[in-house]
């Protein structure tokens, strides 16, 4: 049996439109309703036939939903929750896809105290945004971390987990705070580093007259992809997951200082040991079949 019959998606950008496409593909009998605050996005969503119905207000989108998924930037979750509160059916489950969980869970439960709020985070994405950027296979073979709250009943959590399994994701459960700490190092810090290094190189470009960009090879190009990610989304992630990110940034700065010291004092053994350790980590990830480039190619071409 399908976990939900009527799904409402609020925020029809990269993630919301990918969910809509995936629901169409893998659960075709489910009725999809969509809403986005942007009239331009709503028009695009209608043209792309992402949903059975695209409404002009958030309230109108939820009136007969049995699952509502918030796919807006994490800083907009509270505003959307307050907009839908009066129209949300009492038995509808509310979930979200935000990149950090503790602050979003607090915002959603504050505005929707009578509802089952079951937060989740598909650990899958790209540097693109908007309704045209989504694709149905985005979640296939990727983790979706469900972060249940103490007030959740088991059936609601299982229905949300089953929804993500149907979209092709592997589901794991974690406490919201633990999720935020893990993702601070595996996702948030890498983005902060990419934003920094590309900005630094661009500043340098004023001095070297375009050589930085012109001669940038593999490593720097990879950073530019990450640094092209959506500025609103990432501004909100860093403001919402402040403590965990600052904690990880402190550790990172200490490790960077150690490498700086090794370079200054010619300590080749320290450099070699660190690089050998990280090479082994990458190889073990590839051995486990988690090489993103290969996986992304597979998903987009099947
Ligand atoms: N991009 C990724 O790689 C990725 C991966 C996993 C999770 N996420 C999370 O998914 C969420 C959406 O990210 P995205 O990449 O789809 O962004 P996006 O910019 O592509 O889409 C967000 C959409 O939300 C709409 N929106 C903003 N405020 C709104 C409001 N008040 N009411 C209704 N609609 C509103 C915007 O108009 C936009 O269309 C974020 O919370 C992000 O943290 C992103
Ligand atoms: O592949 C990318 O472009 C991503 O940045 C995806 C990525 C990640 O860091 O892994 C980004 C943010 C999300 O919350 C989940 C996934």
From TrEMBL:
Enzyme Commission number(s) from the entry: 1.3.1.12
Boundaries of every Prephenate/arogenate dehydrogenase domain copy: 5-293
Catalyzed reactions: prephenate + NAD(+) = 3-(4-hydroxyphenyl)pyruvate + CO2 + NADH
Annotated metabolic or biological route of this protein: Amino-acid biosynthesis; L-tyrosine biosynthesis; (4-hydroxyphenyl)pyruvate from prephenate (NAD(+) route): step 1/1
Gene Ontology BP term (one): tyrosine biosynthetic process
Matches recorded under InterPro entries: 6-PGluconate_DH-like_C_sf, NAD(P)-bd_dom_sf, PDH_C, PDH_N, Preph/Arog_dehydrog, Prephen_DH
Enzyme class: oxidoreductase
MF annotations from Gene Ontology: NAD+ binding; prephenate dehydrogenase (NAD+) activity; prephenate dehydrogenase (NADP+) activity
Keywords in alphabetical order: Amino-acid biosynthesis, Aromatic amino acid biosynthesis, NAD, Oxidoreductase, Tyrosine biosynthesis
Domain of life: Bacteria
NAD as UniProt keyword: yes
Family recorded in the similarity comment: Belongs to the prephenate/arogenate dehydrogenase family.
The protein's name in its UniProt record: prephenate dehydrogenase
Protein species of origin: Sphingomonas palmae
Upper lineage: Bacteria, Pseudomonadati, Pseudomonadota, Alphaproteobacteria, Sphingomonadales
